[in-house]
Structures are given as C-alpha cells and as structure tokens.
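hiii, so i know i said id send this last week but things got crazy w the move. better late than never?? heres the sequnce for the chain we talked about at the cafe, plus the structure i predicted for it. fair warning i was half asleep when i ran it
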Amino acid sequence: PDVGVLGKIFGMDLSFVPAARVNLAGGLEHQKMTLRKSSINLRGTEFTVSGSYDWSKKIPVVNVDVSSSYVNLMNGFPELYSQKRVQKNRELNVFQDVPLFGHEFRDKSADVRIRFGELVLYRDLNFEKLDLKLHVQDNRVRADLKTEFAGGNVNAAIDADVDADGVFVAKGAVSGASVSVGSVLEEIRKSDFVSDLPVDVQLYVTARGKNLSEIMQTITGPVTVYSVGPGYAHSALVSYVYGADFLTNLRHSIQDLFSSEKKYNQIKISCMALNAKLRDGMFETQNGVAIETNAINIRLAGALDLGQEEMKMSLTTVPVRGLKLSLTGNVVNS
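okay and structure toks below
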C-alpha cells in the first residue's frame, strides 16, 4: 500500500516512507480501530505493530507499539543517505535546515513506544536494546530513551512545550556509562585514531527553537565527560600530535634499534576529562579539557560555536619525560 496515503488518514506526513508489505490483525469498533500483533515488512525489515486509534474524542488518541529485532536505516531508507539529496552549492553544515516538525506535535494525543534489538544508523554505528517512549499531550512532548551504545549504557530524557509557531521550549538530560570512544570510531570505520577509552557522560541542557539550528544556537547547560578506563592513541592521532618532521622520524628510527616491536605509533591514554558549560550554543574553555598519556599531557583551549558550526581550538602539549627546549634555548629536564 501507499504508506503516504495511510499517513494522511492519521494527519501525518509519511510521504518519505517507501512501499511496504502489511499484514493487519485487529478489529474495528465504534469510532475506534485496534491493531494486535500486526506486521509490516519494509525492504526486508520486519516490524511488529500493535496499538489503537480512537477518534471518539475532540482530539483523537493514538497508541502505537513498534518493535523489530534488527533495523538498518541505510537499507530501509537509502534515499536519506544518497548523495543526490545534497543540494549544489550548499554549505556542508550538520544542523542547518533540519526541521523539527513542531506543528506535527500540536493538538495531538499519542503514546508511542519503539523497541529495536539493534538499530544501525550509519556504517556500523549501532544502538542495541533500544527502548524509546514518546508521550504527546496538551502541546507537550516527553521522550525517554534507554539503550546500549559502544559497550556502555545510555539514558536520555527530554521535556518540551510546543508553542503556536511550532517552537520547542525544551530541557533534556543524557547520562552515559562506560561508552567506549574507540568502539564509536571503529563503528564509523575510523580505527586508526583511538581504541578503548571508556567514558562516562553527563549532560543537562535547555534550548528553544523550531529547527535544529535554532536549538543549537540556544543550547545551555553543563557538560562533563571523563574516562573510567585507559585507552590508546594510534598512528593517525600520534602523527597529528607529534607531526612527521625529521626529528620525529629520527626518534622513531632510534627506538626501532632497541625494540623488536614498534611502540612509537601508540600512546597509552591514562585519563581524559572534559568539564564545561554550554552558553547559548557556545562552548569556550581554557583548562576544561585535559588528556593525560604516558608520553605527553594535552590541554585543549578555544571555542566551539554550535549555532554557526565553527570551531577555533588549539592543543597545548607537555612531555612527561625526556628533554624540553625552552624558547631561550635552555635545556630543561622533565
């Protein structure tokens, strides 16, 4: 069936959803339709659907429960990842022109629950045991998410009011435990930077806007990220930190003379911490980001503007052993 036509019946824009094979089971009562363990097959992905649609009240009430053991968005919605969707001469921004469809949440009454055994978003980036609950009533939206991500557990919650112009006034929190930075990079196929390095994440923010860009321009609140275990920086990141000049290559050659295994392309990360506050989409820090390794200590200073999607950052590195040369030419033993 044409899913877009079905969406219009429920007052929803589903024109982007491809044709699907549908098996419906349920019943039709007076001003109420009920689904029981129905199924939808969308490009090979099987969804189990149950719920009800009650139009006996002034504002129809929708209850939906959707579950699937495995969902790959690239397989189900390849158009979303097609390069043909990129407009010519468009700046490569992440948040710009991303609508939030605030008007779709007004004058609605709905309870939606989505449960996926595994959800693949991009390449191998996936969420496991995903459980999302969405409650919409009286122009208010409440969303709760529990999932496993990159070897850790993530919980998130959002409360938002939607005004007559479709603007969200929201507050949210994210808590992540033992999320592996290395696993995230590996899942997006960037395996030559960092491995392991589990971190805990805490985020409590407020924001308002009718699209994602406006949300990012107003997002405000504390953000903390700190490691709870060691990690390793590999060749691509090590080359960026050290550079690949003559002295660096000479140091590598000398190390190889005394070692059967090359160690220069790997640095152990003992500790990493980020403690900062977003203010109207701006993240500024002088000492709020620090990384401790067995070779150097790193501090990050600068500013990140989420609204304008601009970043001006600088790294300060301090060796923890060996020799440092001061600007006056003096040799300092560290």
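btw The mean pLDDT is 81. thought thatd interest u
miss u guys!!
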